[in-house]
Write a structure and sequence with these properties.
With about 325 residues, the chain is of the alpha+beta class. The protein contains four helices and two strands, in the order H-H-E-E-H-H. The protein has a domain of about 120 residues. A two-stranded antiparallel sheet has the order 1-2. The protein is flat. The C terminus is likely disordered.
Length: about 325
């Protein structure tokens, strides 16, 4: 923020200087009172028509001043706080412990037992008996039959008789002869066949069997029984108990502490400054002749208003 204000002040000073230079240039027109020979003579003499004078200009000047500012500084401070730690503390406790004790005693118990008694019983069983039975089966056989067949076969002549072809009786009638051939035929014949086959069959039979039967017997016996009796016994033991114990501890903590300090700062201040400038000679100023010549008064007033000067200075 400070640098921004400084830059703005410098720019304002430069603008003020540029405005004053333009005003001075507008108030110094070329020489109008003298002739061209006078201007030439002034240039030849090395600037005899220029005048040097001192003016006051406002500029931004750096100025140092002392001020107080607050800053934050980190400091390490020791502080005391309450911390907690876990400790194991022995503690004596008394509790009732159940104890089971066994007691033996005699009792009369009725017991049912089973005895095996042999008994004869009549039962029907299936007895296997082997028997021969006739079994008839049919088998297929092939039988061969042979017979002879007679047939007429035409006879071919080896020699042909020459005759007139136009004679209808030229060709002889065909002759045949008997030929006997053997023919074999196969026939399937079913032939029954009977044979004796041994077969096992089951035949019911009544037999006497000795069987052991379970017969219940009731009797009273003396039995030793064990009975459990629960008793409570007081016991004392030491146990370790976990407890959270507070204690005071010290630690280092970094804190931000405000600190007031005096510093020297620089700021830009607008102050008047004396400067020496060079401008045209008063003899060439039209406003100087306007005081003596009333015809040039209107022009002089306009010129002097623009340059912010009084007439005939």
């Amino acid at each position: 923020m400070f640098h921004r204000n400084l830059i703005s002040s410098l720019l304002a000073g430069f603008a003020l200087l540029a405005a004053s230079s333009l005003a001075q240039a507008a108030c110094c027109p070329p020489a109008c009172c003298g002739s061209g020979s006078a201007v030439a003579s002034g240039a030849a003499t090395g600037g005899a028509g220029l005048v040097t004078r001192t003016i006051t200009v406002y500029e931004m000047v750096p100025e140092q001043y002392e001020t107080t500012r607050t800053t934050y500084r980190q400091e390490t401070v020791q502080e005391t706080y309450t911390a907690y730690r876990t400790e194991v503390v022995p503690e004596t406790r008394t509790y009732q412990k159940p104890v089971t004790r066994q007691i033996q005693e005699w009792k009369d118990v009725t017991v049912t037992t089973y005895k095996m008694v042999p008994t004869m019983e009549t039962r029907t069983v299936m007895k296997k008996v082997t028997v021969q039975e006739p079994v008839t089966t049919i088998k297929c056989k092939k039988v061969k039959h042979v017979h002879y067949e007679t047939e007429c076969v035409p006879v071919k002549s080896l020699f042909r008789k020459k005759c007139d072809p136009c004679d209808p009786c030229c060709n002889d009638c065909p002759r045949y002869r008997e030929k006997t051939r053997k023919v074999t035929c196969w026939e399937t014949v079913q032939c029954p066949e009977t044979k004796m086959v041994c077969k096992t069959i089951c035949v019911p039979e009544t037999v006497q069997v000795c069987v052991n039967k379970c017969v219940p017997c009731t009797e009273v016996k003396k039995v030793c029984c064990t009975r459990c009796v629960t008793e409570y016994v007081t016991e004392t033991c030491t146990v370790n108990v976990t407890k959270c114990v507070p204690y005071q501890a010290t630690r280092c903590v970094t804190k931000c502490v405000p600190v007031c300090e005096k510093v020297i700062c620089t700021r830009m201040v607008c102050k008047p400054v004396q400067k020496t400038i060079t401008e045209c000679a008063p003899a060439c100023d039209p406003c100087a002749s306007a005081c003596c010549d009333p015809c040039a008064a209107p022009c002089c007033e306009v010129k002097c208003k623009k340059s912010r000067r009084s007439c005939c200075n």
